[in-house]
Amino acid sequence: MSGSDRDSRPKRPSNDAAADDPWAKWRKPDAPAAEAEPKKAFQRDATVNPEKRPKTKSFEAASVRAERVGAPVEVSEEVPALPEGTLGVRRSATPSPRAINKKPLRGGSSLRKPSVPKAAPVEPAAPAEWSVKADRPERAAKPAPVVRPPVVRQGPPPEGVRLSKVMSERGMCSRREADLWIERGWVFVDGERVSELGSRIDPNAQVAISKEAKFDQAKQVTVLLNKPVGYVSGQPEPGFTPAITLITPENQVKQSGDPEFKPWMLRSLAPSGRLDIDSTGLLVLTQDGRVAKKLIGDDSQVEKEYLVRVAGEMIKGGLDLLNHGLELDGQALKPARVKQLNEDQLHFILKEGKKRQIRRMCELVGLRVIGLKRVRIGRVKLGELEIGQWRFLRADEAF
Fold first, then answer.
1. CA atoms within 13 A of residue 228's CA, in its CB half-sphere
2. pLDDT in tens, 101-148
3. Which end of the chain is more exposed for a tag (fewer CB within 10 A), N or C?
4. Can you give the residue ranges of every domain in the chain?
5. Are 88 and 81 in contact (CB under 8 A)?
6. 0.70 exceeded by pTM
Protein backbone atom coordinates (compact mmCIF):
# COMPACT_ATOMS: atom_id res chain seq x y z
CA MET A 1 0.00 0.00 0.00
CA SER A 2 1.36 3.32 -0.98
CA GLY A 3 2.04 6.14 1.42
CA SER A 4 -0.66 8.22 -0.14
CA ASP A 5 -3.25 5.58 0.72
CA ARG A 6 -2.13 5.54 4.29
CA ASP A 7 -2.31 9.32 4.52
CA SER A 8 -5.78 9.44 2.96
CA ARG A 9 -7.24 6.88 5.35
CA PRO A 10 -8.88 8.61 8.32
CA LYS A 11 -7.16 7.96 11.59
CA ARG A 12 -9.22 6.69 14.45
CA PRO A 13 -8.86 8.94 17.46
CA SER A 14 -8.15 7.54 20.84
CA ASN A 15 -10.94 7.07 23.32
CA ASP A 16 -9.68 9.81 25.58
CA ALA A 17 -9.44 12.27 22.72
CA ALA A 18 -12.98 11.46 21.56
CA ALA A 19 -14.37 12.00 25.00
CA ASP A 20 -12.75 15.39 25.38
CA ASP A 21 -13.05 16.68 21.81
CA PRO A 22 -16.61 17.85 20.98
CA TRP A 23 -15.63 18.25 17.30
CA ALA A 24 -14.65 14.61 16.90
CA LYS A 25 -17.97 13.48 15.39
CA TRP A 26 -17.62 15.94 12.52
CA ARG A 27 -14.12 14.70 11.76
CA LYS A 28 -14.99 10.91 11.92
CA PRO A 29 -16.55 9.42 8.80
CA ASP A 30 -17.80 6.36 10.75
CA ALA A 31 -19.64 8.25 13.51
CA PRO A 32 -22.88 6.52 14.45
CA ALA A 33 -26.07 7.93 13.04
CA ALA A 34 -27.59 8.21 16.48
CA GLU A 35 -25.00 10.76 17.39
CA ALA A 36 -26.32 13.19 14.80
CA GLU A 37 -29.49 13.61 16.83
CA PRO A 38 -29.59 17.01 18.46
CA LYS A 39 -28.67 17.28 22.10
CA LYS A 40 -32.02 18.91 22.93
CA ALA A 41 -33.80 15.67 22.07
CA PHE A 42 -31.89 13.82 24.74
CA GLN A 43 -32.67 16.61 27.16
CA ARG A 44 -36.40 16.20 26.46
CA ASP A 45 -36.14 12.42 26.88
CA ALA A 46 -34.26 12.85 30.09
CA THR A 47 -37.05 15.08 31.34
CA VAL A 48 -39.63 12.34 30.68
CA ASN A 49 -37.45 9.42 31.87
CA PRO A 50 -34.23 10.26 33.69
CA GLU A 51 -32.87 6.74 33.06
CA LYS A 52 -32.59 7.39 29.28
CA ARG A 53 -30.34 10.39 29.81
CA PRO A 54 -26.72 9.48 28.85
CA LYS A 55 -24.24 9.76 31.66
CA THR A 56 -21.37 10.77 29.35
CA LYS A 57 -20.65 14.32 28.33
CA SER A 58 -20.68 13.57 24.55
CA PHE A 59 -22.19 11.09 22.20
CA GLU A 60 -18.77 9.93 21.01
CA ALA A 61 -17.81 8.86 24.51
CA ALA A 62 -20.99 6.71 24.70
CA SER A 63 -20.11 4.85 21.44
CA VAL A 64 -16.56 4.19 22.58
CA ARG A 65 -17.86 2.74 25.86
CA ALA A 66 -20.20 0.47 23.84
CA GLU A 67 -17.28 -0.88 21.80
CA ARG A 68 -15.47 -1.86 25.00
CA VAL A 69 -18.34 -4.09 26.15
CA GLY A 70 -18.72 -5.62 22.66
CA ALA A 71 -22.05 -4.07 21.73
CA PRO A 72 -22.62 -3.50 18.00
CA VAL A 73 -22.17 0.06 16.93
CA GLU A 74 -23.94 1.35 13.85
CA VAL A 75 -21.91 3.80 11.87
CA SER A 76 -23.70 6.28 9.66
CA GLU A 77 -22.10 7.11 6.36
CA GLU A 78 -23.77 10.52 6.32
CA VAL A 79 -21.44 13.22 7.58
CA PRO A 80 -23.30 15.83 9.62
CA ALA A 81 -23.03 19.45 8.56
CA LEU A 82 -20.58 21.62 10.40
CA PRO A 83 -22.19 24.13 12.75
CA GLU A 84 -22.28 27.74 11.71
CA GLY A 85 -20.68 30.51 13.75
CA THR A 86 -18.02 30.16 16.37
CA LEU A 87 -17.86 27.70 19.18
CA GLY A 88 -17.79 29.18 22.66
CA VAL A 89 -18.93 28.72 26.21
CA ARG A 90 -22.66 29.18 26.57
CA ARG A 91 -23.63 31.71 29.19
CA SER A 92 -26.69 31.25 31.30
CA ALA A 93 -29.77 33.18 30.21
CA THR A 94 -30.49 34.30 33.74
CA PRO A 95 -28.06 36.75 35.34
CA SER A 96 -26.28 35.69 38.46
CA PRO A 97 -27.70 37.17 41.65
CA ARG A 98 -26.00 40.39 42.68
CA ALA A 99 -24.49 40.62 46.12
CA ILE A 100 -26.54 42.48 48.66
CA ASN A 101 -25.58 46.13 49.22
CA LYS A 102 -23.11 45.97 46.37
CA LYS A 103 -23.58 48.53 43.62
CA PRO A 104 -22.31 47.79 40.10
CA LEU A 105 -19.53 49.91 38.78
CA ARG A 106 -20.30 52.45 36.13
CA GLY A 107 -19.24 51.61 32.60
CA GLY A 108 -20.54 48.01 32.72
CA SER A 109 -17.51 46.50 34.40
CA SER A 110 -17.73 44.76 37.74
CA LEU A 111 -13.98 44.67 38.27
CA ARG A 112 -12.09 47.47 39.89
CA LYS A 113 -8.76 48.53 38.66
CA PRO A 114 -6.01 47.73 41.08
CA SER A 115 -5.12 50.77 43.07
CA VAL A 116 -1.62 51.97 42.50
CA PRO A 117 -0.04 53.52 45.58
CA LYS A 118 0.94 57.09 45.03
CA ALA A 119 4.56 57.89 45.22
CA ALA A 120 5.58 59.84 48.29
CA PRO A 121 6.18 63.51 47.54
CA VAL A 122 9.82 64.32 47.14
CA GLU A 123 10.90 67.08 49.45
CA PRO A 124 12.99 69.75 47.81
CA ALA A 125 16.59 70.06 48.72
CA ALA A 126 17.34 72.27 51.67
CA PRO A 127 18.49 75.75 50.70
CA ALA A 128 21.94 76.92 51.64
CA GLU A 129 20.66 79.35 54.26
CA TRP A 130 19.15 76.56 56.38
CA SER A 131 21.06 75.56 59.47
CA VAL A 132 21.68 71.87 60.06
CA LYS A 133 21.48 70.56 63.60
CA ALA A 134 21.56 66.88 64.50
CA ASP A 135 21.27 65.87 60.83
CA ARG A 136 17.86 67.57 60.54
CA PRO A 137 17.28 70.67 58.41
CA GLU A 138 15.38 73.48 60.06
CA ARG A 139 13.78 76.33 58.21
CA ALA A 140 14.59 79.90 58.93
CA ALA A 141 12.15 81.88 61.08
CA LYS A 142 8.97 82.81 59.23
CA PRO A 143 8.37 86.49 58.73
CA ALA A 144 5.63 88.11 60.79
CA PRO A 145 2.24 88.28 59.04
CA VAL A 146 1.49 91.54 57.34
CA VAL A 147 -1.46 93.34 58.93
CA ARG A 148 -3.37 95.21 56.29
CA PRO A 149 -5.10 98.43 57.28
CA PRO A 150 -8.90 98.50 57.05
CA VAL A 151 -10.32 99.51 53.73
CA VAL A 152 -11.72 103.01 53.84
CA ARG A 153 -14.31 103.78 51.23
CA GLN A 154 -13.74 106.95 49.35
CA GLY A 155 -16.45 109.40 48.58
CA PRO A 156 -19.10 111.27 50.53
CA PRO A 157 -21.25 109.42 53.09
CA PRO A 158 -24.74 108.34 51.99
CA GLU A 159 -27.28 111.11 52.14
CA GLY A 160 -30.44 111.03 54.21
CA VAL A 161 -31.60 108.90 57.16
CA ARG A 162 -32.89 105.36 57.12
CA LEU A 163 -36.64 105.27 56.64
CA SER A 164 -37.16 102.76 59.47
CA LYS A 165 -35.27 105.02 61.89
CA VAL A 166 -37.39 108.04 60.92
CA MET A 167 -40.60 106.05 61.47
CA SER A 168 -39.38 104.82 64.87
CA GLU A 169 -38.33 108.32 66.00
CA ARG A 170 -41.73 109.69 65.01
CA GLY A 171 -43.45 107.01 67.10
CA MET A 172 -45.20 105.41 64.14
CA CYS A 173 -43.91 101.91 64.98
CA SER A 174 -40.77 100.07 66.01
CA ARG A 175 -37.86 99.71 63.61
CA ARG A 176 -38.59 95.99 63.24
CA GLU A 177 -42.19 96.72 62.27
CA ALA A 178 -41.03 99.47 59.90
CA ASP A 179 -38.74 97.05 58.05
CA LEU A 180 -41.57 94.55 57.77
CA TRP A 181 -43.98 97.15 56.38
CA ILE A 182 -41.40 98.50 53.95
CA GLU A 183 -40.74 95.00 52.64
CA ARG A 184 -44.48 94.50 52.10
CA GLY A 185 -44.85 97.85 50.33
CA TRP A 186 -47.05 99.46 52.98
CA VAL A 187 -45.00 102.67 53.41
CA PHE A 188 -45.22 105.84 51.30
CA VAL A 189 -42.73 108.71 51.28
CA ASP A 190 -44.03 111.96 49.80
CA GLY A 191 -46.78 109.96 48.12
CA GLU A 192 -44.48 107.34 46.53
CA ARG A 193 -44.40 103.73 47.60
CA VAL A 194 -41.08 102.52 49.09
CA SER A 195 -40.41 98.76 49.19
CA GLU A 196 -36.61 98.55 49.40
CA LEU A 197 -35.05 97.84 52.79
CA GLY A 198 -32.42 100.33 53.90
CA SER A 199 -33.87 103.18 51.89
CA ARG A 200 -32.74 106.62 53.01
CA ILE A 201 -34.95 109.68 52.95
CA ASP A 202 -34.94 113.32 53.93
CA PRO A 203 -35.60 113.57 57.71
CA ASN A 204 -38.31 116.13 56.98
CA ALA A 205 -40.08 114.03 54.34
CA GLN A 206 -43.74 113.10 54.72
CA VAL A 207 -44.21 109.45 55.66
CA ALA A 208 -47.54 107.61 55.57
CA ILE A 209 -48.64 103.99 55.91
CA SER A 210 -51.29 102.06 54.03
CA LYS A 211 -54.57 100.79 55.42
CA GLU A 212 -53.08 97.27 55.58
CA ALA A 213 -50.42 98.54 57.98
CA LYS A 214 -53.03 100.30 60.09
CA PHE A 215 -55.12 97.13 60.26
CA ASP A 216 -52.07 95.10 61.21
CA GLN A 217 -51.24 97.59 63.94
CA ALA A 218 -54.80 97.59 65.27
CA LYS A 219 -54.58 93.84 65.92
CA GLN A 220 -51.60 94.29 68.26
CA VAL A 221 -52.51 94.00 71.92
CA THR A 222 -51.14 95.47 75.15
CA VAL A 223 -51.58 93.68 78.46
CA LEU A 224 -51.42 94.98 82.06
CA LEU A 225 -50.31 92.39 84.62
CA ASN A 226 -49.95 92.52 88.42
CA LYS A 227 -46.72 90.53 88.64
CA PRO A 228 -46.20 88.41 91.76
CA VAL A 229 -42.87 87.97 93.54
CA GLY A 230 -40.79 85.10 92.17
CA TYR A 231 -41.57 85.68 88.47
CA VAL A 232 -39.05 87.21 86.09
CA SER A 233 -40.36 89.88 83.76
CA GLY A 234 -37.82 89.51 80.96
CA GLN A 235 -35.98 86.50 79.58
CA PRO A 236 -36.54 83.32 81.62
CA GLU A 237 -33.72 82.41 83.97
CA PRO A 238 -32.79 78.88 85.05
CA GLY A 239 -35.08 77.77 87.86
CA PHE A 240 -37.52 80.70 87.45
CA THR A 241 -40.79 81.19 85.59
CA PRO A 242 -41.41 84.09 83.17
CA ALA A 243 -44.34 86.35 83.91
CA ILE A 244 -45.86 85.77 80.48
CA THR A 245 -46.99 82.31 81.63
CA LEU A 246 -49.63 84.06 83.74
CA ILE A 247 -51.37 85.42 80.63
CA THR A 248 -54.11 82.78 80.46
CA PRO A 249 -57.91 82.99 80.12
CA GLU A 250 -58.29 81.89 83.76
CA ASN A 251 -56.32 84.92 85.05
CA GLN A 252 -58.02 87.50 82.82
CA VAL A 253 -60.17 90.29 84.23
CA LYS A 254 -62.69 90.91 81.45
CA GLN A 255 -63.96 94.36 80.57
CA SER A 256 -66.61 95.59 78.18
CA GLY A 257 -65.23 96.00 74.66
CA ASP A 258 -62.27 93.68 75.19
CA PRO A 259 -61.31 91.35 72.34
CA GLU A 260 -61.55 87.62 72.85
CA PHE A 261 -58.28 86.17 74.04
CA LYS A 262 -56.53 84.04 71.41
CA PRO A 263 -53.27 82.08 71.68
CA TRP A 264 -51.74 84.09 68.82
CA MET A 265 -51.84 87.16 71.08
CA LEU A 266 -48.91 85.74 73.04
CA ARG A 267 -46.71 85.90 69.94
CA SER A 268 -44.13 88.72 70.21
CA LEU A 269 -45.65 89.84 73.52
CA ALA A 270 -42.69 91.43 75.33
CA PRO A 271 -42.36 93.40 78.59
CA SER A 272 -41.90 97.17 78.32
CA GLY A 273 -40.13 98.15 81.50
CA ARG A 274 -38.89 95.30 83.69
CA LEU A 275 -39.57 94.49 87.33
CA ASP A 276 -37.09 92.63 89.55
CA ILE A 277 -37.88 89.09 90.59
CA ASP A 278 -38.37 90.33 94.17
CA SER A 279 -40.70 93.16 93.08
CA THR A 280 -44.41 93.18 92.37
CA GLY A 281 -46.93 95.46 90.72
CA LEU A 282 -47.78 96.82 87.28
CA LEU A 283 -45.99 95.14 84.36
CA VAL A 284 -46.77 96.10 80.75
CA LEU A 285 -46.44 93.50 77.99
CA THR A 286 -47.14 94.64 74.44
CA GLN A 287 -46.91 93.74 70.77
CA ASP A 288 -47.12 97.39 69.76
CA GLY A 289 -43.78 98.96 68.94
CA ARG A 290 -45.19 102.44 69.60
CA VAL A 291 -45.94 101.53 73.22
CA ALA A 292 -42.51 100.00 73.74
CA LYS A 293 -40.80 103.04 72.24
CA LYS A 294 -42.71 105.40 74.49
CA LEU A 295 -42.04 103.47 77.71
CA ILE A 296 -38.44 102.30 77.39
CA GLY A 297 -36.90 104.61 74.81
CA ASP A 298 -33.77 106.58 75.67
CA ASP A 299 -35.72 109.81 75.59
CA SER A 300 -38.76 108.45 77.43
CA GLN A 301 -40.42 110.98 79.74
CA VAL A 302 -43.09 108.60 81.09
CA GLU A 303 -43.23 108.53 84.89
CA LYS A 304 -43.15 105.31 86.95
CA GLU A 305 -44.54 105.39 90.48
CA TYR A 306 -43.44 102.99 93.25
CA LEU A 307 -44.24 102.23 96.85
CA VAL A 308 -41.10 101.05 98.66
CA ARG A 309 -40.83 99.43 102.10
CA VAL A 310 -37.40 99.85 103.68
CA ALA A 311 -35.47 98.92 106.78
CA GLY A 312 -32.49 100.59 108.47
CA GLU A 313 -31.59 104.15 109.31
CA MET A 314 -31.22 106.81 106.61
CA ILE A 315 -28.08 108.93 106.69
CA LYS A 316 -28.34 112.64 107.32
CA GLY A 317 -29.55 114.44 104.21
CA GLY A 318 -30.35 111.14 102.59
CA LEU A 319 -33.76 112.26 101.30
CA ASP A 320 -32.18 115.15 99.37
CA LEU A 321 -29.64 112.80 97.88
CA LEU A 322 -32.40 110.46 96.70
CA ASN A 323 -34.11 113.32 94.88
CA HIS A 324 -31.19 114.76 92.92
CA GLY A 325 -27.74 113.88 94.11
CA LEU A 326 -26.82 110.28 93.27
CA GLU A 327 -25.07 108.51 90.44
CA LEU A 328 -24.85 104.84 89.43
CA ASP A 329 -22.03 103.23 87.47
CA GLY A 330 -20.37 106.60 87.03
CA GLN A 331 -23.45 108.23 85.48
CA ALA A 332 -25.60 110.86 87.17
CA LEU A 333 -29.23 109.87 87.69
CA LYS A 334 -32.10 111.93 86.39
CA PRO A 335 -33.88 114.00 89.00
CA ALA A 336 -36.43 111.95 90.96
CA ARG A 337 -39.27 112.76 93.31
CA VAL A 338 -38.92 110.89 96.56
CA LYS A 339 -40.83 111.46 99.79
CA GLN A 340 -41.16 109.57 103.03
CA LEU A 341 -44.66 108.30 103.84
CA ASN A 342 -43.85 106.82 107.26
CA GLU A 343 -40.95 105.31 109.15
CA ASP A 344 -40.56 102.30 106.85
CA GLN A 345 -42.16 103.39 103.56
CA LEU A 346 -41.00 105.68 100.76
CA HIS A 347 -42.73 106.98 97.65
CA PHE A 348 -40.70 107.12 94.40
CA ILE A 349 -41.50 108.73 91.02
CA LEU A 350 -38.84 108.14 88.37
CA LYS A 351 -38.47 108.83 84.64
CA GLU A 352 -35.85 106.13 84.10
CA GLY A 353 -35.48 102.53 85.08
CA LYS A 354 -31.94 101.25 85.40
CA LYS A 355 -31.37 97.74 86.65
CA ARG A 356 -32.26 97.53 90.36
CA GLN A 357 -32.12 101.32 90.47
CA ILE A 358 -34.33 101.94 93.51
CA ARG A 359 -32.65 99.23 95.59
CA ARG A 360 -29.20 100.60 94.82
CA MET A 361 -30.29 104.19 95.52
CA CYS A 362 -31.56 103.17 98.95
CA GLU A 363 -28.33 101.34 99.76
CA LEU A 364 -26.37 104.54 99.09
CA VAL A 365 -28.27 106.33 101.87
CA GLY A 366 -28.14 103.47 104.39
CA LEU A 367 -31.48 101.76 103.70
CA ARG A 368 -32.36 98.20 102.65
CA VAL A 369 -35.41 97.50 100.48
CA ILE A 370 -37.63 94.72 101.79
CA GLY A 371 -40.61 95.31 99.49
CA LEU A 372 -41.26 97.16 96.21
CA LYS A 373 -44.49 97.63 94.28
CA ARG A 374 -45.09 99.59 91.06
CA VAL A 375 -48.52 101.20 91.05
CA ARG A 376 -48.51 103.48 87.99
CA ILE A 377 -46.89 103.90 84.54
CA GLY A 378 -47.69 107.23 82.89
CA ARG A 379 -51.44 107.74 83.15
CA VAL A 380 -52.24 104.04 83.56
CA LYS A 381 -52.67 102.78 87.12
CA LEU A 382 -52.58 99.31 88.58
CA GLY A 383 -56.03 99.82 90.08
CA GLU A 384 -57.78 96.84 91.61
CA LEU A 385 -55.92 94.11 89.74
CA GLU A 386 -55.16 91.28 92.13
CA ILE A 387 -51.73 89.66 92.18
CA GLY A 388 -51.40 87.30 89.21
CA GLN A 389 -54.34 88.83 87.28
CA TRP A 390 -54.20 90.72 83.98
CA ARG A 391 -56.36 92.77 81.61
CA PHE A 392 -56.19 94.36 78.17
CA LEU A 393 -55.28 98.02 77.78
CA ARG A 394 -58.51 99.77 76.88
CA ALA A 395 -58.90 101.93 73.79
CA ASP A 396 -59.51 105.02 75.94
CA GLU A 397 -56.26 104.53 77.90
CA ALA A 398 -52.85 105.90 76.97
CA PHE A 399 -49.56 106.13 78.75
1. 13
2. 555 545 444 445 555 555 555 555 555 444 444 455 556 666 777 777
3. N
4. 3-69, 161-218, 222-392
5. no
6. no
